[in-house]
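Can't attach files on this board, so I'm pasting raw text. These are the components:
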Amino acid sequence: MHKALIIFYFCGHYKKAIKKLIMAEYNFREIEQKWQHNWKEKGTFKAAVDQKRPKFYSLDMFPYPSGAGLHVGHPLGYIASDIVSRFKLLKGFNVLHPMGYDSFGLPAEQYAIQTGQHPALTTEQNISRYTEQLKNIGFAFDWDREVRTSDPAYYKWTQWIFMQLFSSYYDLEADKALSISSLVARFEQEGNGQVKAVCDEHTPAFTAAQWKAFSTNEQQQLLLHYRLTFLAETTVNWCGALGTVLSNDEVKDGFSERGGHPVERKKMMQWSMRITAYADRLLKGLDQLAWSEPIKEMQRNWIGKSIGAEVVFAVKGSNQKIQVFTTRVDTIYGVTYLALAPESDLATELITDSERTTAEAYIQQAKNRSERDRMSDVKTISGAFTGSYAINPFNGEEIPVWIADYVLAGYGTGAVMAVPAHDERDYNFATHFGLEIRQVIEGSMENGSFPGKGGIVINSGNLTGLTMKEAMNTCIAFLEEQGIGRGKVQYRMRDAIFTRQRYWGEPLPVYFKDGLPYLIEEKDLPLVLPEVDKYLPTEDGAPPLGRAKDWTYTTETGTYPLELSTMPGWAGSSWYFFRYMDPSNTNSFADKDKTDYWGAVDLYIGGSEHATGHLLYSRFWTKFLYDIGAVSIDEPFQKMINQGMIQGRSNFVYRIKGSNTFVSLGLKDNHDTSAMHVDVNIVHNDQLNLEKFKAWRPDLANAEFILEDGKYHCGAEVEKMSKSKYNVVNPDDIIERYGADTLRLYEMFLGPLEQFKPWNTNGIDGVYKFLRKLWNLYHPQNGAFVVSDLPANKEELKALHKAIKKMEEDMANFSFNTSVSSFMICVNELTSLGCNKREVLEPLAILVSPYAPHIAEELWALLGHSDSITKASFPEFQEAHLVESNFEYPVMINGKLRAKLDLPLTLTVPEIEKAALADAQVQKWLEGKAPKKVIIVPGKIVNLVV
RNA sequence: GCCGGGAUGGUGGAAUAGGUAGACACGCAAGACUUAAAAUCUUGUGGCCAUCUGGCCGUGCGGGUUCGAUUCCCGCUCCUGGUACCA
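---
Top answer:
Structure tokens for the assembled complex are below.
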């Protein structure tokens, strides 16, 4: 080509020559721009309700628009969902495939604190960058449906949902959320004695008369015990450096997930969401979801349901009672001590004078140890005796009460009945302090404690001889009869804290009157985030909204202060999938007709790191919206795929210490070198581009090299993608060099979607070559487009239909990488067959269009179609083209492949056997002996045993 | 500790209702074209042995079931994700 170019250049015809070359070659730049423009102009991916077609809702977890821009890992999931969406379009589905931004969040606010720039501004800039990057990849998104959680038109409805939660309580009889007004009506009728509702632990009982006699303030105070979102004093994770409260899943090992600042436990007045009311439904709902088992398991563990019993122990010589939760009430006769959490008030109260010095010192020591220390130091056993004794209600025995830091204040009742014989921790504790170990389940104690869940109860009064289940039922019946306990279900999951002391979030639609919270009126939504002079807490420690002027709300009775905290990051993302269905509605969060039509998300793709946060909160809000009749589904995401993270692959160069000379990887051990990260963008196939390296930094301009075979080989390591490791790869660079279609194909070709894998561009040339081969199939003669209308022959149709079959199977399994190979095989075969028949090339273009949409559209247009290829139908697979008449049987003798035999598939087993035994190779191996055993699987294998 | 997922050539990976291990691609090597390089094309490429026909070994390690095991079972090792004293 280049030679031709040079000749034309000298002839003065170079302009014409260049034009001809461009026409002839696969020019991805021109093609991709053309079609991206065309899709936008024609609104190709605009979705609308259409009752005549089946719907398919394909959703990606929307990104937080960070300042670093989109890196090569982001599009992985988007490409996969885009392929599925385009495939479903070809299959005749009405596809909803939207994209938007989770645009409230900490980084923009931290940046605002540092620079004084309004977070809205930086967020806007970041979104523009993301949008541009995404558009360059050619996704089939309906951009008209874009949502942004920080847009007042959007968060108006986040606030609205909050108001519905505030106005609801969870009724256990109806097993759903009901309105607070219906609860008030019941209180007026009969008090709360008969009301079975999810409420705070210490909710007092009252009669209808008492209720009516309460002041408004008292009534409001009581209702907070029932509301699904409520204000209460809670122990929270307080991060001083960030100046805010964090949820459990935002804290990692005692440090904030974002920023890595230390986090402490602190009691504060906070808004919470009563997600525990939905614990059981969240658990049960998992069964019907097509999610990966590990993710479901993570949610189950997070919810942490334990079925057991609550037992009340009296304290000897005192009115105090100790309440414990146990899952093994059947082992009650094996209890030899009780253990209390050091934080519990009861522990302090039960200390007797004789033990005061040691016990109080222990409590102090336990409190001083950070949560982190206590967690990491599992091996050390510590505790202190209170001096008090409790009475076992089953046998009246006196048992010592201890304080132990293995008991957590935050779970159950903060008190444990210890059964050393059948619980490992209790066993270790009892052994350490010389406490009694009493076996009550049949079995051997040789290896220490054992749970003995299948064994028979022994040494246990009237429980002796029963199974675990029988004993438990007997115990619970006794406890309930005596009024000293009951069967109880305990959850590990806590209510979710719903406030952050930050600026860049949704304001809560709440004002305070006499210190009690009230909702603002619906007509005043959205409550727009006010302007502030600084994004920092006020002088007296109030959240940034405390700086706003006139942050008040006026009603008929007066003007009141508004809530200063804002909602957490997960608020806006807990319902965005509904907003996409009707993004510009101003009368409701989404029209019911539309949410009914689009229903649940049919395919949700995103990272597994959201397993216990976003995915749980979204399910919770969806169930709530279902309860109040706002939507008709109670599970938002039917099918979910978790794509693996793309890790960075760093490259290294080796500098001889104290010099500016760099040694190639294979020779570095001959010198005293130190490794240095080098920008992966100036390395190709692990070979360093020396010129670019010299230009990379001023101090490297004079760098010298010791090469291997004239090349500099770099070292490599897999690490997280990060700026400081110079291993961040932007999709932009790849698109610039190879085009979006190559990027899309390559990200899929890299390996299974769900697998974690390092990014490398080592194989990218292969898929780029594939696209050029594909293009050349349609341009066989000197780059001119030529397609024949002659009928395709058998081989050509076989090559095509193999690919059709494979793609359909792969689509069902989300195995995108193997589809790319099957396209390669198909194109390779058609190339060697010299096929340019329309009958084959038309379906082929459709086949690859979900993966490489730009080139496919261009070929489709060249084939003479005026409509987008997305309006075409997926080619129908015909088995007939794959039917073979012969099969090459592998003949194995004693399990080893010894010969191959090409035989008609119509042969029967005896015929195959006859043919196999007649074969010269086979006879050589049989050495004249008759086989002992003959195994023949028609169409598969022949195996002879000698 | 507990609960998941995984380990296949120089590299990414393919093949599991048990049936020819290494598809497809990268890399590498040789050749063609070129003054040359790049690009392109052709051929070869798991390891060891052999002059060839070919043989032996081989899917993390050790056993087992089977005519036949990457696939199933038992026991380990290592990597990785989640979770963490949950009573």
